[in-house]
Amino acid sequence: MVYARSASTTLGECCRNVVIVHLEHIRGKIKGAASLQLESQSQVKEGGALAFPLEDDDKIINGYECPRHSQPWQAFLTTNNKRWCGAVLINEWWLVSAAHCYKPPSTLTVHLGEHNLVEEEGTEQHIKVAKAINHPGYISWTADNDFMLIKLQRPVQFNEYIQPIQLASSCALAGSQCLVSGWGNLKISEVQYPDVLQCLQVPILSDATCRQAYKNQITSNMFCAGFMEGGRDSCQGDSGGPLVCDGVLQGVVSWGDECAKANAPGVYAKVCNYNAWVEEIIGKN
């Protein structure tokens, strides 16, 4: 099942004609954040899933309200004033997100210091994007290297509500307890959006379990976290958001098979693989 939802918008530039082929066990969870209308049925190949963000559909399934401003690195992106994807602050100028969330920088705004999206809390900062740089190894049809750097037009002003997080320098072990966060639909089979940031504790799964769940689709730049019995998960729209273990960023929400489905845990970009590239890009820009 392709996990798209009806809306009046059409596929964006990042997503036109992007199809994951031969993914017989994936039925549509690239975890983006916008409700999109397919331009034609020919975009979907049998046994495949579209790789696109889904607007206004970011989910933490069966999580809980995060303590207010407990995730001060949490950000979200809007494109042309529509909510798009999650992102993570790593210093005063730069954030990371998922490569499949790419949009032309001139259309993107980063929102920080948010908790309740329907209240003006006085803690928010909204900053336009200067650059969005996908990892050169990103392959849209496999979601390998689903990792993007975002540079702001002006620096963030740090305070108790907005702080960066350190990138993991070593990879987390299987069994590590981590926290994923985002805003969005609270239900698996219906729509119920929360106003406040949602959190969920998830364990990192072994590579063997991850590969068993997704056969030949897991690369060395991915790992799984979640519950094999299903019921709790991140989902569309949490794309680009943080998975934090022991106070460092270990994962970026990437993809999976539907939402909170048994034997189909969430898949994350492995942050510990990207330190050298991040240093190189920041040094040059």
UniProtKB/TrEMBL annotation:
Reaction it catalyzes: Preferential cleavage: Arg-|-Xaa, Lys-|-Xaa
What are its E.C. numbers?
A: 3.4.21.4
PROSITE patterns associated with the record: TRYPSIN_DOM, TRYPSIN_HIS, TRYPSIN_SER
Q: Which GO terms describe its cellular component?
A: extracellular space
GO MF assignments: serine-type endopeptidase activity
Question: Biological process GO annotation list?
Answer: digestion; proteolysis
InterPro entries assigned to the protein according to its UniProt record, in alphabetical order: Peptidase_S1_PA, Peptidase_S1_PA_chymotrypsin, Peptidase_S1A, Serine_Proteases_S1, Trypsin_dom, TRYPSIN_HIS, TRYPSIN_SER
Q: Which Gene3D superfamilies did the record assign? A: Trypsin-like serine proteases (2.40.10.10)
Give a single Pfam family match: Trypsin
Please state where this protein is localized: Secreted, Extracellular space
**What are the record keywords, sorted?**
Digestion, Disulfide bond, Hydrolase, Protease, Secreted, Serine protease, Zymogen
Coiled-coil zones: none
Major location category of this protein: secreted
Q: Which residues form the Peptidase S1 domain?
A: 60-283
Tell me the PANTHER family matching this sequence: TRYPSIN-3-LIKE (PTHR24264:SF68), TRYPSIN-RELATED (PTHR24264)
Name this protein carries in UniProt: trypsin
Q: Which organism is it from?
A: Polypterus senegalus (Senegal bichir)
Gene name? Answer: Try1_0
